[in-house]
Amino acid sequence: MIRKIKNYSSRSHKGWGRSLFLTAVLCVGLLAGCGSSGSGEKGTLRVGVALYDQSDTFISTVVQDLERAVQETEGEEGLKINLSVADGRSNQTTQMDQIDQFLSRGYDMLCVNIVDRTAAAVLIDKAQEAGVPLIFFNRQPVAEDIQRWDQIYYVGARAEEGGILQGQLVLDAWLQKRQTLDRNGDGILQYGMLEGEPGHQDALLRTEYSVKVLSDAGVEVEKVVSDTANWNRGQASEKVSQWLEEFGPSLEVLFANNDDMALGAIDAFQEAGAELPLIVGVDATAPALEAVKEGTLYGTVLNDAQGISRAMLDLMLALVKEEDPEQAVGLEDGHYVWLPYQKVTQNNLSDFLEGYQP
Ligand code: BGC
Ligand code: CA
């Protein structure tokens, strides 16, 4: 059984007894007339959730966590929250149509995992025109767009922090077992980099900061090869199979911007019967935690899916209750809720995997 640390969730749950009661009362009061433009039931919060691509492992986890959090809230407090989930299938035009539909049906709030981060302005203007608060998550629009309207929010983790923690995992390993890691004994760390989707803040900043941690610490690094595999396990496995033919054992460390690509790399090494280098990912998905347990994946960085979904729900409730989101969910700079990343290796795996004994 997989159990993730609920950093955000446990914090936010504590003060909930009274405020949830208020929510229940206020929701019914505030939303009684809300559904008038659509088929809305009385006392129901109708939320449109637009995903960039539902087949993405991490995103599907966030949605499942959000659905679970909503059910728990409804079960506990008798609230009615309707989530409508739309899959953008990596197409911004498709996603725009889905959002137009949510708005024309009179939905109360939008949660958007935008396909193309640079297309946010159009969407924000539409939401503002309709007076519907919009929470972006995981795919971060630029600050100028977020600031277009005070009812625009972003819930996610700081991309550079993910990179820094991943770099620290490798730095610790280099300091502890340099003899084994430095296969060719030249004192230089030869690495490969599997990058996420081009233009995604997490791909850009994790790539930059992971390596920066090492060079800032005085470790000499050499990039052997890097390429994008679009967050995807199959694409990563294909790429790394080619790398293995070309660069073979010269790869001492493999950074992957996410776990799916790290697992794809492991697939490729295992298929080729080649010795695994030190591989690190980001996300702490269930299969990645299993790989850490087996020792094929050296480490990963928790991208807090539960925290993100819980924070989105709490933010929506705060908006409904007309509570100050700064107090309710720790909103920063008027627009942002940040969830912390966490390093995961075999040393602390028991915090994440139930029943695991080091
Ligand atoms: C995750 C990736 C995911 C991407 C989708 C990133 O934060 O680490 O696994 O594919 O978001 O936008
Ligand atoms: Ca070396």
Question: What can you tell me about this protein's structure?
Answer:
This protein is an alpha/beta fold. 47% of the residues lie in helices and 17% in strands. It has two domains: 2-157 and 304-339, Response regulator (Rossmann fold, 3-Layer(aba) Sandwich); 159-302, 3-Layer(aba) Sandwich (Rossmann fold). The strands form three sheets. The protein has a six-stranded parallel beta sheet with strand order 2-1-3-4-5-11, with helices on both faces. α1 runs parallel beside α13 (305-320), α3 (57-77) crosses α13 (305-320) and α10 (233-247) packs across α11 (259-272). The two termini are 16 Å apart. The relative contact order is 0.14. Beta-D-glucopyranose is lined by residues 56, 58-59, 138-139, 200, 202, 231, 258, 282-283, 303.
What's the level 1 CATH class of the largest domain?
A: Alpha Beta
Bound small molecules, deduplicated: beta-D-glucopyranose, calcium ion
**How many structural units, i.e. domains?**
2
Name of the CATH architecture of the largest domain = 3-Layer(aba) Sandwich
Q: What is the gyration radius calculated from CA atoms?
A: 22 Å
Which series of helices and strands comes N to C? HHEHEHEHEHEHHEHEHEHEHEHHEE
Secondary-structure-based class equals alpha/beta
Distance between the ends: 16 Å
Q: What does the average pLDDT come to?
A: 89
Assign a percent range to the helix content. Answer: 40-55%
**What is the CATH H-level superfamily of the largest domain?**
Response regulator
Beta-strand percentage range: 15-25%
Tell me the major beta sheet: 6 strands, parallel
